[in-house]
Amino acid sequence: MNITKSAALLVAASALVAGSTAAATAADPAGTRVTALQQAAEQVLADRPQPLRVTADAVKYEGLTVTQAPRTMGAQDLACDYGHLCMVVKGTKFDFYKCQTWNVTNWTGDGPFTNNQTRGTVAKFFNRDGSVRWTSTAYQAGTATWDPIWSLRPC
What we know:
Elements: H1 3-18, E1 25-27, E2 33-35, H2 36-44, E3 53-54, E4 58-61, E5 64-68, E6 84-89, E7 92-96, E8 102-103, E9 110-116, E10 122-126, E11 132-137, E12 140-145, E13 151-153
Antiparallel strand pairs: 1-2, 3-4, 4-5, 5-7, 6-7, 6-9, 8-13, 9-12, 10-11, 10-13
Helix pairs in contact: 1-2
């Protein structure tokens, strides 16, 4: 890992630990500016999609919005628009609204989720080998154990 990337990760970790939603930025090896929130998202999105829009408060991808979650949040506190599948992983809120398979990595720990999709829509969470680990049928909310989740399909 080069010094620039190490510095960028340190900035991201510091901002997340502090619970800051400020636009903490660092330069990535390509010389572009990257927010701490974007770095947090990239640490758990295995495919690392190109963001469509990055602000201090959100990183928007095609079919996914990533925001900083409040420090203490239960499933009852997780706001999730109708038609969306939302969850908190490592203090970061993921709001999925596109029907596709999302490859993830480094998902560990427990966190709240809300499946607020069309009634009866089944979200699937997969093991490393592609087998189904667990499912959630809309509407459902609760707390999930994320490890080991390697991919998910909201619909």
